[in-house]
């Protein structure tokens, strides 16, 4: 297992400001998985993919056998993790599941992106809590820092109960409320004190 929990933004949430200019990220909640001098990578965790069923995806990937957990197969929502590599799947999950390719993002949240992980999940041997996303949000070196400086994102903690326990449609509002911020009072103008 790889450990990436050593830089400031890793394991945090980015919340899109209400004035976000890029429509792909309107009210986006992004769980940050990597941030270093090579760039940044995060998973949008509140954007369900319309018309994409986890059960159909599993069938297309041919990862299911006769030993299938029907509850997981038909209840796990597929999210759009971002516009980069939109066919690549990731499982963002609780720390009770790990494989050799699992990345520990923070102590209670890990990410795995292998077909073997999907097999385990479909057979009911996966993590207690999980999200399945296709694609990711990526930034080149310095790009995210500039966007933060330009007031495009709020940064906040990523408690597991918010990441896994709040419905996708309510994540942005819930995260803003937890910060004690009134969204109507947010300004898109950056300034210096």
Automatic annotation (TrEMBL):
GO cellular component: cytosol
Stored SUPFAM superfamilies: VC0467-like
InterPro entries: AlgH-like
Coiled-coil boundaries: none
Matching Pfam families: DUF179
Family indicated by similarity: Belongs to the UPF0301 (AlgH) family.
Name of protein: UPF0301 protein A11S_2242
